[in-house]
Amino acid sequence: MTWAVTYSMFLLLLLSMIIQTTFQAGLEGASPLYGPDDKILILNTTNFQPSICSSSKAWVVEFYSSWCGHCIHFAPTFKEFAADVFAWRDVISVAAIDCAMEENMPTCREYEVMGYPSLKFFTPNTPLETWGWSAILGRRQCLLLKRT
Question: Which residues are catalytic?
Fold first, then answer.
């Protein structure tokens, strides 16, 4: 092999290692966008349905990914929105679910989140349904997630 080919292969290998390390660090080292001091309920697969479905108040839920640049830039705006409506918490509340967390992915898929950040509005008393779309009401229902 010539010197140029060996050098090119070395650079390609080095570049692939850097990209892989950066990607893994981005996924594993991503800090949460929202914390306990924010006026945002942090949702997960376990507490999503009990908190949102059949609630007597409306909910604005952000489906986000902690590594997403748009989500990171949107977080301060969403925090400000949550703080602004906090006085109305008996009527409307704000929540967020991190779709980058593997345990939350089924919930994000079930609610057909195709991009980040995605905001979804849940009306008061959104019924818990097993069929998803309601033909009678013509609006999205809370879905009963099946555990396998």
Answer: 68, 71
